[in-house]
Amino acid sequence: xxxxxxxxxxxxxxxxxxxxxxxxxxxxxxxxxxxxxxxxxxxxxxxxxxxxxxxxxxxxxxxxxxxxxxxxxxxxxxxxxxxxxxxxxxxxxxxxxxxxxxxxxxxxxxxxxxxxxxxxxxxxxxxxxxxxxxxxxxxxxxxxxxxxxxxxxxxxxxxx
Amino acid sequence: xxxxxxxxxxxxxxxxxxxxxxxxxxxxxxxxxxxxxxxxxxxxxxxxxxxxxxxxxxxxxxxxxxxxxxxxxxxxxxxxxxxxxxxxxxxxxxxxxxxxxxxxxxxxxxxxxxxxxxxxxxxxxxxxxxxxxxxxxxxxxxxxxxxxxxxxxxxxxxxxxxxxxxxxxxxxxxxxxxxxxxxxxxxxxxxxxxxxxxxxxxxxxxxxxxxxxxxxxxxxxxxxxxxxxxxxxxxxxxxxxxxxxxxxxxxxxxxxxxxxxxxxxxxxxxxxxxxxxxxxxxxxxxxxxxxxx
Lengths: 160, 293
Prior knowledge:
The structure holds two protein chains of two kinds.
Chain A lengths: L5 E7 L2 E7 L5 H7 L19 E4 L2 E4 L12 E3 L12 H8 L9 H14 L5 H7 L10 H17 L1
Chain B lengths: L4 E3 L4 H11 L3 E4 L5 H6 L7 E4 L10 E4 L2 E5 L4 H6 L1 H6 L1 H7 L5 H4 L4 H6 L7 H7 L3 E6 L2 E6 L4 E3 L2 E2 L6 E8 L6 E7 L10 E8 L3 E7 L6 E5 L11 H12 L12 H30 L4
Parallel strand pairs in B: 1-3, 2-3
Antiparallel strand pairs in B: 4-5, 5-10, 6-7, 6-10, 8-9, 11-12, 12-13, 13-14
Helix pairs in contact in B: 5-8, 9-10
């Protein structure tokens, strides 16, 4: 069964790619090992921590709980797809400005969850930010600055 | 994760043929948020995974039928929560579905999958039970409908026969003013399995229905024939006595989340809280229906 490869076609960060994947490989594993996109992280492997969060067809999902074969035909955005050329996404800038990054392991997932939250709700209350990020754990427990960063990004959006 | 054969059938006929051919070796994949966790932990190692998401007949939406809302087998919890008709008629289900996993999980997890996983602690189950959800099954011998209260047989066990799958879940529309609510107890606020969960439905015609999860081998429905529970100003001691009888229908175990004794105590607290909100909503619903004097 090792050689049981299935062709898939996905759009990742605006680029269409054709791949052959093993059915038992998760989308996260394929992003990391076959596309060298190592920003999304594997941590709990069971949907508790959110370190693997990506956008799939515009929705935040845990890429560790999706088979790569399921993603055939999907549009995917990973943390690597947020910055345009050398310009960071305003949300990424806000994380820097707020000093929201400690060890950094959870941050790609946090940013992707926050991105989805702000897409759905451009002006969330603090409680809504906490709810929106409930599926993302920070092992440094640096939640307050992460939440402040999301609120900063939302307020700057408002001002712009 | 072990290797397996992956099938992506286009029709229900193909699904049923595969299910019959591979039997216990096969698992159905919808959202995958339970299946893949179990596979990744080697709790199960199916040789065949059948992905349902390209099956033309299976729907991923909410349809208004004559007298019921129909939730397709592929409808994810996020879409269920945001549906205005579900919000209007089945608020306790919205409350329950809103606390399943995280945003990321709810964007993938299906209502049907939550039921077929048959966890005694499934949050959507008590809400579906009070609303008398009907589960539409299809298999080699055709279609049948099973009330959800008869669907669960034990932890991870359902009435699904070999070759059968859930096609949709129907929620009969309420025919009178009612109030319903969902409550649950968890160790932490986000992304946790319920220690105890409860749903309550209050109607003038047939009284109060409770449903509980995580306190018996399956989610359970407990109807209360004593209509005094509908009285908001009911003497606290009388209400406590009735809720003690309700709690006597549960048979919790001790596990990593809580002891049997704690669960027994908390069933009554969850029931009381759900009842209070349900009665408030019943009063509000009746006020809306009564003519303006």
